[in-house]
Amino acid sequence: MNEQIQAAADKFAALVAQQLERVEKMKEDKDFIDYSKLNPIVIGVCGGDGIGPAITKEAQRILEFLLSDEVKRGKVAFRVIDGLTIENRVAANKAIPDDVLEELKQCHVILKGPTTTPQAGDPWPNIESANVAMRKALDLFANIRPVKVPEEGIDWTFFRENTEGSYVLGSSGVHVNDDLAFDFCVATTEGCERIARAAFDFAKKNGKTRVTAVTKANVVKTTDGKFLDICKEVAKDYPGIELDGWYIDIMTAKLIDKKRRTDFQVLVLPNLYGDILTDEAAEFQGGVGTAGSANLGKKYAMFEAIHGSAPRMVKEGRAKYADPCSIIRAAVMLLNHIGYSKESKLLERALDICMYEEKKLVITGREDGATGEAFADYVMETIQKLS
Ligand code: IPM
Ligand code: MG
Fold first, then answer.
1. Cα(68) to centroid of ligand 2, in Å?
2. CATH number assigned to the domain comprising residue 97
3. Any ligand 1 atom below 6 A from CB of 129
């Protein structure tokens, strides 16, 4: 028994040391990258696996179309990275093979297709999710997920903490013995503060009057308690923006309460609650296939679709019918992030027209629907008409 306790304590000590090191690194990295000073801004296009390469290629074509002048004058360059497949990850027995990580680090921003996340029982070894690994490796601490349904008055922007909480040690839990297992949830002052500031800065910049912190601080007292306390501290620097605290259970209920849900504007949450609540929220606008997501750090940024890699579609020969809308939404956010807000708005408008208004082509994921390629062409034609 004592040996088991000692072995668990040793593992815990190693994790504490690793996290303290991460805290020091966070404290060192103070400044955000300035894209206007980069020549060129390197956009990495990483297809991932499953339907990822097929849909990502379409988003890339649209970006190249919108930024063609910028590419010509050397301000923007594209770099394709295609090694982030489940086969390569399994062969390297790593969430992100070293050579792929090096390639990713040569880029300033990354457009990423979905990657397959192995789970126990799959034919793959149970390696860590490539998403989670990339967020950690590039310190992409803010996962921003907008959800809009204008006709219902829904306009939410979620700021999900992306590098801590129940995720950061999600693959480092401890089986003490056959009867006892532990996972860990982590909160740091630096980590909570930077996500809270990101949410409040966004609120201030966009004329929002309310930021809602979602936790379970009444039960998960230490880490969620810290998250909420720090949100309250940060709120003091933003007069005119009200902070309200909600618990995750009632929040999931209130999102379906038509009378209350339109009150929410900007929501800030720890990692796991953010994961869950953003799937629920995206459902109101048509499902996770319609939502894009930005993963922002101080040095790097990654933009992705929030759905999975749909290996079944590939197996059944339907990859070309996969819906590229979510990754195109991610491209909208990428453009805005690197300073091309005009192009970003244009693409967003064109996509809204194609998806919700004109609907000349409809994607069903099957032969009776449009291909992703045809849909991307349709989006580009719509852009041409608008500009
Ligand atoms: C997401 C996804 C990922 C997550 C998975 C694929 C690991 O669900 O981006 O929300 O849990 O963060
Ligand atoms: Mg999720």
1. 33
2. 3.40.718.10
3. yes
